[in-house]
From TrEMBL:
It comes from Pachysolen tannophilus (Yeast). PANTHER family: 2-DEOXYGLUCOSE-6-PHOSPHATE PHOSPHATASE 1-RELATED, FRUCTOSE-1-PHOSPHATE PHOSPHATASE. Pfam families: HAD_2. InterPro entries: HAD-like_sf (IPR036412), HAD-like_SPP (IPR051806), HAD-SF_hydro_IA (IPR006439), HAD_2 (IPR041492), HAD_sf (IPR023214), PGP-like_dom2 (IPR023198). Signal peptide: none annotated. One of its GO terms (molecular function) is 2-deoxyglucose-6-phosphatase activity. This is Glycerol-3-phosphatase.
Length: 234
């Protein structure tokens, strides 16, 4: 383990695999769907974590009518409804989130609005984590991860709420290569979490730091414009 410190003005968090340990629930749901359509679930596991469900439908299930994302939205509802009992908060999530000033963090997820808010209602609120003021989901962007649109939009909305001028220091928390690439492309420092992929995969994707879970990150030195993250990284 090595300790490093990073000063930042805001933090932007992915949701699945970053605040909610939902990988098993997500993979179970995709396995059922892929097998139903005679596809190999491993195709999804290898390269599509962190990608919008609507984009995965286009890639692997073009025969399904997904007009207005109705089918992909319905599928995501089944993830939390049918498999939500397998999900839990990531270790250290509550302590870290509640240490960050409430107007200096947001969610940027590839999940749909219903599923993302569902994880808060089913898992995170019970762990003491309230919904942030800025909450970006799949329907809020034209292009999903690895495109940086979501992280750029989240940072801009926080910037407008803070009234302190342009934000130049930001940290993204991610568990998947697509999200790491999106965070880097947005100009952020990226902390990768090994909840879904091994350290080497996250480093190869470009993560600046890699941690086992969020208990390895501590907030220090909060002032009017920024704060410091102490990172105990792998």
């Amino acid at each position: 383990m090595t300790k490093s410190e990073v000063e930042t003005e805001i933090c932007l968090f992915d949701l699945d695999g970053t605040l909610v340990l939902s990988t098993e629930a997500v993979e179970r749901a995709w396995s059922v769907l892929f097998k139903k359509h005679n596809l190999h679930p491993e195709d999804f596991f290898e390269g599509n974590h962190g990608v919008r469900t609507t984009d995965t439908f286009k890639k692997y299930l073009p025969e399904i009518d997904n007009t207005n994302n109705a089918a992909s939205d319905e599928f995501e509802v089944t993830i939390s409804n049918d498999w939500g009992h397998l999900a839990m908060p990531l270790k250290g999530a509550s302590q870290l989130i509640n240490s960050i000033p409430e107007d200096r963090w947001c969610i940027v997820t590839s999940g749909t609005t219903k599923m993302a808010h569902g994880w808060f209602e089913k898992v995170l609120i019970n762990d003491g984590i309230s919904k942030p003021k800025v909450f970006i989901t799949a329907s809020d962007v034209k292009q999903g991860k690895p495109n940086p649109e979501g992280y750029l939009k989240g940072a801009k909305l926080l910037e407008l709420k803070l009234y302190q001028g342009k934000i130049t220091k930001k940290v993204v928390f991610e568990d998947a290569p697509a999200g790491i690439k999106a965070g880097l492309a947005s100009g952020a420092i990226v902390i990768g979490i090994t909840s879904s992929f091994d350290r080497d995969v996250l480093i190869e994707a470009g993560a600046n730091y890699v941690v086992k879970d969020l208990s390895s990150v501590v907030v220090k030195n909060i002032n009017d414009t920024s704060f410091t993250l102490e990172i105990d990284h792998l």
